[in-house]
């Protein structure tokens, strides 16, 4: 039986895939994107699994759906999906979604080249530059980011002790800087990053409660951001961000960059207004900046912005038929 057909615009943001699903949207209940996310996860996770996992997707696959705004002044809403689940917020996904939607006429260009977006994590505003029908860059003004825990000592099986920080930038990130048991990403293979990341994440989630103080449905440390030496002279820092079970983000990770800037700001290592060029595992760059400061509940927080670019690589029509034993994907 045919479960659904989904039209998609495929592309990437600085190397990491974005699959914007343009038809076949489930009808979601809820007044906010956070409530709609809960409904999606409860009843429609099969759509995510079918479109993100092999054989229709792959380990790094990430995508989005555009919905009508859930606020009076919003222009559109975004629901994010990826191999790891349904994220509260995704930076590379926002940059890709806005680029593809503007270029394909799904969102009309505005007179001031700005859009107000509702996401499960909250309001994200964007500015963009469009020339001859093509978007050159998108700058997103992300939800407030804050350092949740600092200098946490953990014991990681087969690695030993590590000192980590946990920072929120739309998702909770475990940030690991070079130290005796971790020499920096440039000295580890991808296999080492993947092997140790799941253990680090498991240990943290068994030890600490990572819960957003304003929305308890946003919880759990989902990503591990390992740091190291950049390849490019103009990069401020480099990362390898682990997500899902086997993914290393090919983009510099928008929510990860926000979390990293919040961590560096809280530790006195980055100032308001200072440009922060963040380099991904493949050497692509986002330009981050701390636009100002605020509070989340009573915690000091920053207002991060991230600028990056995306490219469309094609369009596809994906059908999901439950007579196919792999209709809902698989992971190896
Ligand atoms: O860009 O925020 C991001 C992101 C999250 C997971 C992969 N990329």
Automatic annotation (TrEMBL):
Gene3D superfamilies: Diaminopimelate Epimerase, Chain A, domain 1. SUPFAM superfamilies: Diaminopimelate epimerase-like. One of its GO terms (molecular function) is 4-hydroxyproline epimerase activity. It comes from the Bacteria. Belongs to the proline racemase family. This is Hydroxyproline-2-epimerase. It comes from Pseudoalteromonas amylolytica.
């Amino acid at each position: 039986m045919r479960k659904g057909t989904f039209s998609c615009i495929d592309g990437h943001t600085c190397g990491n895939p974005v699959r914007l699903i343009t038809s076949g949207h489930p009808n979601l209940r809820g007044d906010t994107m956070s409530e709609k996310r809960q409904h999606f996860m409860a009843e429609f996770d099969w759509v995510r699994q079918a479109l993100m996992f092999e054989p229709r997707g792959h380990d790094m696959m990430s995508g989005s759906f555009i919905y009508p705004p859930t606020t009076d002044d919003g222009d559109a809403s975004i629901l994010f999906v990826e191999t790891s689940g349904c994220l509260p917020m995704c930076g590379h996904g926002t940059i890709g979604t806005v680029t593809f939607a503007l270029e394909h006429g799904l969102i009309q260009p505005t007179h001031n080249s700005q859009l107000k977006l509702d996401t499960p994590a909250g309001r994200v505003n964007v500015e963009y530059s469009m020339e001859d029908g093509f978007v050159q860059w998108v700058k997103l003004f992300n939800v407030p980011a804050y350092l949740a825990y600092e200098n946490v000592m953990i014991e990681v099986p087969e690695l030993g002790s590590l000192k980590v920080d946990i920072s929120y930038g739309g998702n909770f990130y475990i940030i690991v800087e070079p130290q005796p048991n971790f020499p920096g990403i440039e000295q580890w293979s991808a296999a080492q990053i993947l092997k140790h990341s799941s253990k680090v994440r498991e240990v943290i989630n068994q030890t600490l409660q990572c819960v957003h103080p304003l929305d308890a449905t946003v919880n759990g440390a989902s990503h591990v951001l390992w740091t190291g030496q950049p390849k490019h002279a103009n990069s401020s820092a480099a990362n390898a961000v682990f997500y899902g079970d086997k993914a290393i983000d090919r983009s510099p990770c928008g929510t990860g960059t926000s979390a990293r800037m919040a961590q560096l700001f809280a530790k006195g290592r980055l100032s308001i207004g200072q440009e922060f060029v963040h380099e991904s595992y493949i050497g692509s760059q986002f330009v981050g900046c701390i636009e100002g400061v605020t509070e989340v509940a009573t915690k000091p927080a920053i207002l991060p912005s991230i600028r990056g670019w995306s490219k469309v690589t094609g369009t596809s029509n994906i059908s999901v038929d439950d007579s196919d034993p792999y209709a809902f994907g698989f992971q190896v």
